[in-house]
Write a structure and sequence with these properties.
9 strands, two-stranded parallel ribbon, mainly beta
Length: 71
């Protein structure tokens, strides 16, 4: 999942609210969003196995989570 842009959260398109997910052998890289440049999760359990989350950007000065925003 590379080089995507979102106007909300989860630039990589991975936005989850509740539940759980597993990333297996996945690269999330070069994505941008105001918060959670790569991934945005809320009340969610995320397991990443053999995965890489790198070089993602949170563009808002008021929100964190360049690679992963977990709230």
């Amino acid at each position: 999942i590379q080089s995507n842009t979102a106007t909300g959260t989860g630039g990589g398109g991975l936005v989850a609210d509740g539940g759980s997910s597993t990333l297996n052998s996945l690269t999330v890289s070069g994505n941008m969003a105001p918060g959670g440049g790569g991934i945005s999760i809320s009340s969610h359990s995320l397991t990443a196995t053999n995965s890489l989350i790198q070089s993602n950007t949170a563009t808002s000065p008021n929100v964190n989570g360049g690679g992963l925003l977990a709230i």
